[in-house]
Each structure stands twice: as C-alpha cells, then as structure tokens.
Amino acid sequence: MSTTVSGRNGTWRNWGGTVAARPARQVEPASVDELAAAVRKAAEDGLTVKAVGSGHSFTSVAATDGVLIRPQLLTGIRNIDREAGTVTVEAGTPLKRLNMALAREGLSLTNMGDIMEQTVSGATSTGTHGTGRDSASIAAQIKGLELVTADGSVLTCSEKENPEVFAAARTGLGALGIITAITFAVEPIFLLTAREEPMSLDQVTSRFDELWAENEHFEFYWFPHTGNTNTKRNNRSAGPEQPVGQLAGWFEDEFLSNGVFQVAQWAGRAVPATVPAIAQISSKALSARTYTDIPYKVFTSPRRVRFVEMEYAVPREAVVETLRELKTTVDRSGLRISFPVEVRTAPADDITLSTASGRDTAYIAVHMFKGTPYQAYFTAAERIFTAHEGRPHWGKVHTRDADYFAGVYPRFGEFTALRDRLDPERRFQNDYLRRVLGS
C-alpha cells in the first residue's frame, strides 16, 4: 500500500545541499498501479509530479512544489534472463544494491560510474557515466524500460516497442514520464585489474590519445595549482583476484581519500591561501598501486566528502586543449581550487539527449568543497567548456538553457516534440525543465 507523507515540514533537500523543495505531498507507491494512480490523482488536483531518487543531482531536476514520488518501495530485481543477457530491475533500486545482487548471481554491468548511491532510474535519467573507450554510460546499457506517462498509462519501450520513446527516455530527465522498471544488458562477471599511478600533467596530455587507445577504461585527476595528476587504468584480467588489502584499502580509500582529504578541505576553506601548498601534498599522497577485483569494486569508491560539481562533455579530440585552457585560467586567476579536476571518456551513443549522443566524448568535471564559494570558478570553467560546444551533465551545476541545447544537440527538437506528445499539459514540468527544454 502506498503511503502519503504530508507536505507540512516536508522539505526535501539534495545530497549536495544545493537544492531544497517543499512539495504539496509526498507519495511512496508500492506498485506500478499505485504510482499510476498517484499521477492521475495529481492531474485531478492540478498538481505537477516529480520522482526523486537519492538526490545526488546538484541541479533542481527533481524539485517540485507538487507531488513528490519517492520510489523506495519500488526496488529489487524483477527478472534475470541469462539467455538474453538481461536483468530487469525496479526503478528505485540503488545501483549499490543492483551491483551486489548481480555479483551474487555471477553477473555484472559492463561499465559504471564511480558512485553507486543513486537509484537506477535517477542515474540513467540524468546520464550518469563512468569512463570507457568502447563501453558507454549506464543509460547506454539499457535494453528496455517501463514508463508511466502523464495520463497514468504504462508504456513498455525497447528498440522494437515504442522505439522513438526508447531513444529518448533512457536519458529522459524525468520529462517524458516516470520510469518504473529498467532492463539492463548484463554479462557474466569478470575481473578488472586497476593500475593507479601518479603522472605529470604534461605527460598525460601529450600521451592522452595513446593512454585512451591502450586501455579499456582510462581516467585521471589533475590537481589545480600543481602539474601533477593521478591516473587510473582499468582493464579486463584473467586473474587471479588480488583485491586491495583491508588495511591498505582503509588507509588509501578511507583515511587518505575521505578522512585526510576532508580535513584538507576544511583547512583550505578556512584559509584559502593554504590551498596551493595543500594541493602539492594531496597530489603526492596517493602512491601507485595495482589490484584485481570484480567490476563494481574497481569502478566505484566511497565519496564521503561533500562537494558541488560541474561537468561538461566536450568532443574527445578537444579535451587536451580544453584542459590546457582551464589550467591557464586557474593559474592566472586568484582562484584557490582545493578539489582535483576529473577527466573521463565515452564513445558516441544513440540516445537523443545523452551527453555523448552522436559524438566520441571526453568529460571534464570541476568540483568545489561544499560551503566554499564556487561561482567564480564554475563561471570561468563554463566559459571555456561552452566555447568547445560542451554539453553539461544534466544532474550537475550549469547555467545553460533550451536555446543553447538546441545548438549542441542535433536531435533536441526530436526530444521536445516527443515531450509535447507524451506530456502536453506539462504534468512533469518544473523550473529546471522549463529552462533546459523550454516551456
């Protein structure tokens, strides 16, 4: 049975602390029928509807003053089809729970991002991705989905069924309906060997094409105010399994990457002048290491230090130039940047509003510690990213609008026409969608 939580004192906040909303009511449906009924009831009451996952988006993509749907009860695996190589999962399932359940079944997604707290529908709807030469975002691994549309009907979508909806709804921003289940392509579980090592920024940028081509998954972090990076290469391995030891893992992943890093962020926020010195130390704190484990234990890591993030997708061939411009801007400014800049890649995909739609892509993500003024840095970075026809991550801070997106997404009109058809009364509208899609 669904539970309704009244809107009084029911303020919803996102993980990054950048968005707060006061919905008229909150609903936790326990089935697809109950969710469809909640959408129809909202229409009767003249209210808009938004579903919210774990709140990991930094934008107000899920904020509403209408009906807030919480999918916590819509979780778990519906079906595993080993022959087809697919798993169907309820929309509110956290990625963490999906990864662990698949591993128990001897299965895995091919690629994933580095955080797994998000729900499957929240992560795919905003275009969450990891890094990959040949394997793309989480949404690109979707084989089918189930969607409750504005009139409360349930649509099943795949390449064969409602293909035009399928093309768009895999990264649908919550604009086309509420996803209730997703079918992912999965494969037998495999091992990845991770090789993490420091490298100078000059080395990484001069060898970027080679590092990208030679590794299935390559990424690096550049520490502003330094010429240093930490690189990570993940490649399939025949084994044996050699996980990070418990003590070493705690020291590197918890003590250094979360504990000491948190203290360094506090120090930098309190005394910005110390940031360059702290960056020099931070960039040398993590030593080289190699380990082999199952995919989710290699791809993902805990992120306990809260931050605000902007990330743009640029054409892959423009990434080195874009990064050099960012470094020059930071060096010439009085900005003090205590968080590393993350660089990843993805192959072109065929999802209408995927940040990698139709082009081989590189991602550049800039972060600031929560509570530190980030506007000056993000504005400067955004100016560089947009000069390279960058596409911002839908769930991260940006200032772009529908006019801009119509210019950088060749299929933008296809998406808005589909929205006109599926949600003519804008049942799923909010301020964010009004800005990025037009009203």
Please tell me about this protein's structure.
The protein has 14 helices and 21 strands. It is of the alpha+beta class and 439 residues long. β7 (77-81) and β8 form a beta hairpin. The longest helix has 25 residues, at 246-270. It starts with a strand and ends with a helix. It has helices at 32-44, 95-104, 120-125, 163-169, 201-206, 208-214, 246-270, 275-285, 295-299, 319-332, 375-387, 402-408, 412-422, 431-437; strands at residues 3-6, 12-13, 20-21, 25-28, 49-51, 67-69, 77-81, 86-90, 107-108, 142-148, 154-158, 178-185, 187-188, 191-200, 217-222, 228-237, 289-293, 307-315, 341-346, 361-369, 391-392. The radius of gyration is 21 Å and the shape is globular. α7 (246-270) runs antiparallel to α8 and α10 runs antiparallel to α11. An 8-stranded antiparallel beta sheet has the order 17-14-16-15-19-20-18-21, sandwiched between helices. Strands 7-8-12-10-11 form a 5-stranded antiparallel beta sheet.
Estimate the mean pLDDT confidence: 92
Query: Globular, elongated, flat, extended or rod-shaped: what is the shape?
Result: globular
In spatial order, strands of the major sheet run 17-14-16-15-19-20-18-21
Backbone structural class:
alpha+beta
Q: Helix tally?
A: 14
Task: State the separation between the terminal residues, measured CA to CA.
Answer: 35 Å
Query: How many individual β-strands?
Result: 21
The fraction of residues assigned to DSSP E strands is 15-25%
* CA-based gyration radius: 21 Å
- Which consecutive residue ranges, at least 5 long each, have pLDDT under 50? 4-8
Largest sheet: 8 strands, antiparallel
